[in-house]
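look at this record:
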Amino acid sequence: MTAARTQALDPAKIDAVLELFKAEGHTPVSPPILQPADVFLDLTGEDIRRRLYLTSGTDGVDLCLRPDFTIPVCRHHLAQPGATLPAAYCYNGPVFRQRPDRLGEIPQLGAESLGRADTAEADADLLALSVRALDTFGLGDNRIRIGDETLFAAVLESLDLPTVWRRRLRDL
């Protein structure tokens, strides 16, 4: 394990990132590890089946260990009485995916933004927040590839860069 990876697992830094997310308006959630499998299969396709840890409930319903947080966070939101949009959540915990020659339990830390009308700005805000989270871990030398031109423009506008640099980056 590299020093950067070891550093990234530092509980104090994880707590600092969660505090960063909370300061930006994200409510901490911890969705159940055991999830209905059908929603993952319906939304992401049958290809994910080979990566899920599957089991059946006593009622015959297919269940799986949480393979990511996005769908469980959305399910959590929809289960709240009087749930409204927009909403913002953050989380930290294990997800489970079968992987060749690797452990299937993977730590995941992140944030979700649901239902904002300004989607490009919402994506840019989450990307900027993610970069700040990486900086907290001391992982500042990263490459980010953005395929959505609208999102890229929104990210550039949100950065504290001189106008001439934003223009140059946009025109690359």
